[in-house]
Design brief:
The protein has a single domain, classed as Orthogonal Bundle (Cytochrome p450), CATH 1.10.630. It has helices spanning 38-45, 65-72, 80-83, 108-116, 122-127, 129-146, 152-157, 159-169, 176-187, 196-218, 224-230, 240-272, 274-282, 287-297, 333-336, 371-388, and strands at residues 24-25, 48-53, 58-62, 77-78, 150-151, 232-233, 236-237, 310-312, 316-318, 321-323, 328-331, 393-394, 403-404, 411-412, 416-418. The strands form 5 sheets. It has a 6-stranded mixed beta sheet. A 3-stranded antiparallel beta sheet has the order 5-15-12. The protein is 44% helix and 10% strand. β1 (24-25), α1 and β2 (48-53) form a beta-alpha-beta unit. With 423 residues, it is of the alpha+beta class. It is globular and about 60 Å long. One of its GO terms (molecular function) is oxidoreductase activity, acting on paired donors, with incorporation or reduction of molecular oxygen.
Length: 423
Amino acid sequence: MSAPVETEPQAASPQCPAHRSGDLFPLPGSSYRGPAPRYQELREQEPVVRVRTEGGVDAWLVTRYKDVRELSADPRLSRARACGPGAPRVGGTMHTTPEMIISLDSPEHSRLRKLVAGAFTLRRVERMRQGVQQVADQLLDDMQGRQGPVDLVQQLAVPLPLTVIGELLGVPAQDLRDFEKWARAFATVDDRAGGEESLQGLAKLSEYIVGLVADKRAAPADDMLSELIAARDNDDRLSEEELVTFGFTLIGAGFDTTANQLANSVLALLADHPGQWRWLAEDHSRIPRAVDELLRHVNLFATDTTGFPRIAAEDIEVGGVTIPKGDAVLLSLASANRDPAVFADPDRLDLDRARNPHISFGHGVHHCLGKHLGRMELEIALEGLLRRFPDLRLAVPESELPWHTGEINHTLTSLPVTWGEQA
């Protein structure tokens, strides 16, 4: 039996000029439901187009699946040049520090990735399944005991990946509450507040992780941080700074993105596709394929791109256009995931989609190291919700849901849900 077909609500198409330099990035109209409507026109008419960014500099915006995938793996596009001194400030994107793994080019990137990749293999992640299941069950037990309505963001979407990341790093149980507070502040980007809360979280986390690395070095335990401390390739190993920086990267990428993806996926189903929620509840074997479709369909990035600009290290020809050396390039994963050349009826949520080569985890050398863990957490969380709350529904009108502004991701502040006979 195929998943029920439901019509996807369409946002009104903005009136954007069609000429080559008329668009300001980020494009207006993006939401968790999908990328800005303008991307459809760009894929058809100008798949590689020069846009003006909020940072005041021009950048090339790439929108077709084929081009985005190829450029994601093209070594001529440099992440390091986009993060170094004097790099163009492309507004609406995430600015990472030069020493982070997502900011490096080869050979530095290859060296660091080789040292840490063993901690994220599918086999190792599968060994974690029972522990992740226990964390999810405890959170869902508490949720079920509250009898609704509850805030799914605070009850499940945030604490599940945060607890898992804390346990991965070997954070002692008595420190998890402070760890969660600092990590949440670190992952929150709010331009209106000047980033003060995020900086405070960064400072607290930095001090804590430095101490944690020292503790694990003195007394190794069965956790990923201890494994990374011990990891070596011949005589090479991670430096102290690299260990601390990787801890930050793991927190930002492994907690915040998973939390937002889970909350937005549940919202997409409950608000627009309640029939598909019930369809999943009928047969939980459908969940893995559904998770991949939700990863493709639900738009995580508020800018519709990876959030990480790149710089052309030499002239690059793509889509009939030459991108000159030194120019900034933005790759729209959200647009690529809606490309009709790859995905049949791409704007429809099809939880039974058989062929789904989405690139939500990126592609090439910078593809997400934690993709196996993120996918597993989403599967476990959705299975638990569907098993216990097959009649889950929003407790407030969707128009009343609060969204955090200034985020790189589409981030719900809260998601009140209820079930059973509650009003």
